[in-house]
């Protein structure tokens, strides 16, 4: 017959084993989307696209709390076989966006700028250069040229 001390030990061991099983949760596979599936205000997109062009918009040096920090922003036209969209590259992302390269956007979001969609990757996402893709970009369908307007609906 087990004493209360042995029972407590067994209970603690079982609890620790349960915690270890919970810690090793399985990662889910990314769901890749196409450019034409993107809608305003959405986030969490993972997609593969080719860089068509990259234009530097802002480049300025800023003094922030005793160290020199450079702010760089570039607008890059990226696309896949379904369409194109403007990507707003910030700081280190600007260096990755070379025309002709294929990149993977992870956890990308759609920002609205002057009524049109822009693809963006913040600190929670990632931009990676990958192997060249074998698709032809459909340049006729530029989602950033579509202008959206926020309309408030009044219930009667």
TrEMBL record:
Residues 38-129 form the Single-stranded DNA binding protein Ssb-like OB fold domain. InterPro entries: NA-bd_OB-fold, OB_Ssb-like. Residues 1-31 are annotated as: Disordered. Gene3D superfamilies: Nucleic acid-binding proteins. Residues 1-21 have a biased composition (Low complexity). PANTHER family: EXPRESSED PROTEIN, OS05G0244600 PROTEIN. This is Single-stranded DNA binding protein Ssb-like OB fold domain-containing protein. It comes from Hibiscus trionum.
């Amino acid at each position: 017959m087990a004493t209360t001390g042995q029972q407590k030990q067994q209970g603690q061991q079982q609890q620790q084993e349960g915690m270890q099983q919970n810690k090793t949760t399985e990662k889910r596979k990314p769901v890749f989307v196409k450019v034409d599936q993107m809608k305003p205000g959405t986030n969490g997109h993972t997609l593969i696209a080719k860089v068509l062009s990259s234009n530097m918009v802002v480049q300025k040096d800023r003094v922030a709390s005793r160290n020199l920090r450079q702010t760089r922003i570039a607008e890059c036209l990226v696309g896949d076989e379904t369409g194109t969209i403007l990507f707003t590259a910030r700081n280190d992302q600007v260096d990755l966006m070379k025309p002709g390269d294929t990149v993977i956007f992870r956890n990308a979001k759609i920002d609205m700028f002057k009524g049109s969609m822009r693809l963006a990757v913040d600190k929670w996402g990632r931009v990676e250069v990958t192997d060249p893709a074998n698709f032809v970009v459909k340049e006729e369908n530029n989602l950033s040229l579509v202008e959206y307007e926020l309309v408030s609906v009044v219930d009667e």
